[in-house]
Specification:
- There is one protein chain.
- Helices cover 35% and strands 9% of the residues.
- It is an alpha+beta fold and 319 residues long.
- It has two domains: 3-158, Glutaredoxin; 168-281, Up-down Bundle (Glutathione S-transferase Yfyf (Class Pi), Chain A, domain 2), CATH 1.20.1050.10.
- The chain has a four-stranded mixed sheet. The chain has a three-stranded antiparallel sheet with strand order 2-1-5.
- A hairpin with a 4-residue loop joins strand 6 (134-137) and strand 7 (142-145).
- Helix 4 (171-186) runs parallel beside helix 7 (232-251).
């Protein structure tokens, strides 16, 4: 994955993305300002970023589950008219995430040809990974955040519309699930797929399925993870579920079970998929092409499999 080092774009990170024991380690997000209702400084970053319709723009990529989470927040909060979006082309090149000159994968806000050109505008000597999502303030011409968890939280808190994703009475339970899901599922599938030793893979893949087993049990007693209300932890989980059988099960060797092998979890995933607008945020063929893109370690020939065929519109029977 590309990065900027003192303002210079590098196609490959010179630092290894795995520890000495073969465990994959994810780089931390580096842009963490905050939008608030009145422009006051939030939990991180500077002030002056006020919640205003039409002021903010999201740079996304269909492949990326972290970007998917921000895109879903925009949908659930009803911010489609208030916050515009651009999608990078589905496959990265030597320039990383790129934008085409016109069409559905073009950038009509800054007119850049690659995502790293946006990061170069953050500061002249910017250092960090080049990732999506990026939330951009079009009024001031600055990046707000490239941390998806912060983007979900700030869009939920700053804009007075849509369902509350972090209700106060469930906050402790949401945070507990979020921490577990991030570590063992969202990032867990990557820890399995990018592991460089058998031991690192074994640790990661078993944690993935231990958590999925626990979620299966939870969904046998409650409709959503914290009860009868859809909240931020359900939103956090869904992008990984949407990619699981079509990509992670095969490409990342997370193959102890399929999502479809969990009766409660599979029905829950289909219910979310069938909520208004959610299917329009999902691109299964793009996921498959992205996760099976050429990789010297994981898929040297770059062959994309034909299957699996999965019916996400099958009735979930959770009414």
């Amino acid at each position: 994955m590309g990065l900027m080092l003192n303002g210079i774009y590098l196609a490959e990170d010179p630092q290894p993305d795995t520890r000495e024991d073969g465990e994959f380690q994810r780089a931390k997000s580096t842009i963490r300002n905050w939008i608030t209702k009145d422009g006051a400084p939030g939990p991180t970053g500077e002030g002056g970023l006020t919640a205003q319709a039409g002021r903010y723009h999201l740079f996304l990529a269909w492949n990326c589950p972290w970007a998917h989470r921000a895109f879903l927040t925009r949908l659930f909060k009803g911010l489609e008219e208030a916050t515009s979006v651009s999608f990078a082309a589905p496959r990265r090149t030597e320039d990383g995430w790129i934008f085409e000159k016109s069409g559905q994968y073009s950038d009509g806000v800054l007119g850049v040809s690659a995502l790293h050109e946006i990061y170069a505008r953050v500061e002249p000597a910017y250092t960090g990974r080049i990732t999506v999502p990026v939330l951009w303030d079009m009024e001031r011409g600055v990046a707000v955040s490239n941390e998806s968890a912060d983007i979900v939280q700030m869009l939920d808190a700053a804009f007075d519309q849509g369902p509350e994703l972090f209700p106060d009475d469930l906050l402790q339970e949401i945070e507990r699930w979020n921490e577990c899901i991030y570590r063992t599922v969202n990032n867990g599938v990557y820890r399995a797929g990018f592991a460089r030793t058998q031991e690192a893979y074994d640790r990661a893949v078993h944690e993935v399925f231990e958590t999925l087993d626990a979620i299966e049990d939870q969904l046998g007693t409650t409709r959503y993870l914290t009860g009868e209300r859809f909240t931020a932890c359900d939103l956090r989980l869904f992008p990984t579920l949407a990619r699981f059988d079509v990509a992670y099960h095969y490409a990342f060797k997370c193959n102890i079970r399929r999502l479809q092998d969990y009766p409660n979890l599979w029905a829950y995933a289909r219910e979310i998929y069938q909520m208004p607008g959610v299917a329009d945020t999902v691109r299964f063929e793009i996921y498959k092409a992205g996760y099976f893109s050429p990789s010297p370690l994981r898929n040297p020939l770059g062959i994309v499999p034909a299957g699996p065929i999965i019916n996400w519109n099958q009735s979930h029977n959770r009414n």
